[in-house]
Amino acid sequence: MNHSNFISSLISSMKKLLPGFLLIAAASAALLLAGAERRAAGARTLRLALFQFSSRPTLDDAAAAFIKKMAEKGYTDGVNISIKRYNAETDNATGAAIANEIINSGFDAVVTLSTPSLQIMANANKNRKILHIFGVVTDPAGAGVGIGAADPLDHPGHLVGIGTFQPVEKAIELIKQMNPGLKKLGAPWALSEKCAETCVAKARKKCAELGIELIEAPVENTSSVLEASRALNLKGVEAMWVGGDNIVESAIESVVKAGRESGIPVFTNNPDHAAKGAFVSIGANYYMVGEKIGALTAEILSGRPAKSVPIEDIVPEDLVINLKDNKNIGPQWIITPEISKRASNIIK
Q1: Using the 8-state DSSP alphabet, how is residue 188 labeled?
Q2: The dihedral of CA 257, 344, 216, 88: what is its sign?
Q3: Per mean pLDDT, which range of 3-7, 103-107, 196-200, 313-317 is the poorest?
Q4: Same fold, 46-164+286-313 and 168-285+317-347
Q5: Domain 46-164+286-313: CATH architecture, name and number where available
Q6: Of 130, 94, 57, 45, nearest in space to 287 by CA
């Protein structure tokens, strides 16, 4: 066969095979397209609601840490997850409306920060329509949302999170250590706050043990915090203490103001308050708490059953002292070298 005949024969053979090649190519393209569609469907963007009760450093720090940790764990807002933030700004009615919106908006999960937002969301989610993860909560078992106190796994299958019980007893002991002669301690607190009630109950017991009279002043809202704190001054308190209390903490400047008017120090269970004038604040590092919540949420979104997660009490302790704004409280308040060593920051 000469060269010309060979080429003609080759072309003829290719023409015969071409329909088969085209059929194979078309089938392959169809399979590739179907696979791409399946992958796209499986990689849809998750939707998560982040619901906090108020705007204050504790919750803002926890929220920022949560979002950062989620990204580190592979869930980046705006990439493969959409995180929508909600804030009730200490208003229960607004919180209830937010919870209902979250329930009816098709979110894959909701993360709540603070005891009130946990309670509001859990109440709206009684039918278990949405996975609920919580944090920055003083006493999960005492929140009245179906969580048991004896067994860390005793919680609804759709509801799980992290507790952070403020070190109330340590705060009272520290106050007594700094002023052994202390007789009267004031405590403004919101009667509507379950977390505040729980903290005050611990404070009552510890004060009784140490020979301190705990004088309480009820608070209804942030606007009444200053008046309540001034009322405590009139009763002769020698210092004031604030535990876990979303309402009073949102107006901590008012407590500090009342304290300065009478030349008495303010102690709190939130390290953020020292920067706002509190004398000594011992509590949790809430940025670290936010990181823990983010890691737990990522783990659950990646497949771990919520019902298998034990509810733990996580308190990365932090102590901050403010000397700068408390120079006129009297020589009876003594910061020993031991106390100074415990502090992560001393504001001078």
Answers
A1: E
A2: positive
A3: 3-7
A4: yes
A5: 3-Layer(aba) Sandwich (3.40)
A6: 57
Q: Quote the pLDDT of residue 8.
A: 55
The Cβ-side half-sphere exposure at 248, using a 13 Å CA radius, reads 35
Confidence (pLDDT) at 19 = 52
CATH for the stretch 168-285+317-347: 3.40.50.2300
pLDDT digits (tens, 9 = 90+) for 258-287: 999 999 999 999 999 999 999 999 999 999
Gap between the Cα atoms of 267 and 187, Å rounded: 10
Q: Are 67 and 294 in contact (CB under 8 A)?
A: yes
Burial label for 160, CB within 10 Å (0-12, 13-18, 19+), is: buried
Cα distance between residue 188 and residue 230, in whole Å: 10
**How many Cα atoms are found within 13 Å in the side-chain-facing hemisphere of 66?**
30
Residue of 49, 130, 132, 45 lying closest to 83 (CA atoms): 49
| Domain segments of the chain as ranges | 46-164+286-313, 168-285+317-347
